[in-house]
Amino acid sequence: ADLRAFVLGLPKAELHLHIEGSLEPELLFELARRNGIALPYATVEALRAAYAFGDLQSFLDLYYAGARVLITERDFYDMTMAYMRRAQADGVAHAEIMFDPQTHTGRGVAIETVFAGIARALREAQASTGVSGYLILSFLRHLSEEQAFATLAAALPLREQYGDLWIGIGLDSAERGNPPEKFARVFAHCKALGFRLVAHAGEEGPAAYVRDALDLLQVERIDHGVRSEEDPALLQRLVDAQIPLTVCPLSNLKLRVLRDLRDHNLARLLRGGVMVTVNSDDPAYFGGYVADNYIACAQALGLSRQELAALARNSIEASFLPWEQKEKLL
Ligand code: ADE
Ligand code: ZN
């Protein structure tokens, strides 16, 4: 039978998705027009043509520039609702969505506006489609730990209103030169507050950053982590402790973490007993949503249907859902 139909039919959780990275060029242009913001591209096609990246930083430059069209509560709502519709179409039962408040507060957008728009879309989507959503507030690692503490302080009063959705803390942006150690104190504080913890590590940075994210930040999941293979002892630890990796194959390809999807270590990690999951990262920029990532890997790496089902099952198991809800999806 048809590979896409099979992948769409697997109950899946998406665990590594930056909501700002789901902003498609068409909506980006519409929001720019609505908000009277001039864009350095004449057309949607010209913008899309600029999505050719040499590394993580060349992507981040366009990703942060694109986010400047997000101004009002309605903008954040529209962006999030568009993603939730795509997720439902891909057979996603649950999404754990990262957002970068500092990208917006740094431009004068109130953190209340960011939370309100995203949360309204998640609640409406859950009611109308049944797809559930959690939020992971992510600190930008190119900024200081002091700025992360200030962002946390600004967000904490909103926990009362959004605590059912905002369950976690993450760490993203430029990895090299911004090691986990830089955020050890703020992560310890977030852990004490009862947040679930994740961090990007081992995407462009070395395996040592994955180890340090586990030991110094006490994270429960690693976002990416594909370079963990470079340290056999670390790899064994990931297997033994069943620490989930949220792998994003099309992202790795577009950001030239590898040259060809056939060189991706996803299949090797899975067959070696690592708790790997497949995710889309920034689907508007990398040319595919989560089902596209499963399909591209099935084709490039020769994954069997059993292996695709195992990846989907891993995504449910590695989610932060309460076990009664996981059970219903497994
Ligand atoms: N922010 C959005 N996508 C990211 C990625 N793949 N790595 C680090 N920071 C990001
Ligand atoms: Zn990411």
UniProtKB/TrEMBL annotation:
Binds 1 zinc ion per subunit. The record marks H224 as: Important for catalytic activity. GO terms for cellular component: cytosol. Belongs to the metallo-dependent hydrolases superfamily. Adenosine and AMP deaminases family. Adenine deaminase type 2 subfamily. One of its GO terms (molecular function) is zinc ion binding. This is Adenine deaminase. The lineage of its organism: Bacteria, Pseudomonadati, Pseudomonadota, Betaproteobacteria, Burkholderiales. It comes from Pollutimonas bauzanensis. Its cofactor is Zn(2+). Keywords: Hydrolase, Metal-binding, Nucleotide metabolism, Zinc. Its EC number is 3.5.4.2. Substrate binds at D282. The keyword Disulfide bond does not apply. GO terms for biological process: adenine catabolic process; hypoxanthine salvage; nucleotide metabolic process. It catalyses: adenine + H2O + H(+) = hypoxanthine + NH4(+). Zn(2+) binds at H16, H18, H200, D281. Residues 11-330 form the Adenosine deaminase domain. The active site is at E203. It is an enzyme of class 3 (hydrolase). InterPro entries: A_deaminase_dom, ADE, Ado/ade_deaminase, Metal_Hydrolase. CDD domains: ADA. Catalyzes the hydrolytic deamination of adenine to hypoxanthine. Plays an important role in the purine salvage pathway and in nitrogen catabolism.
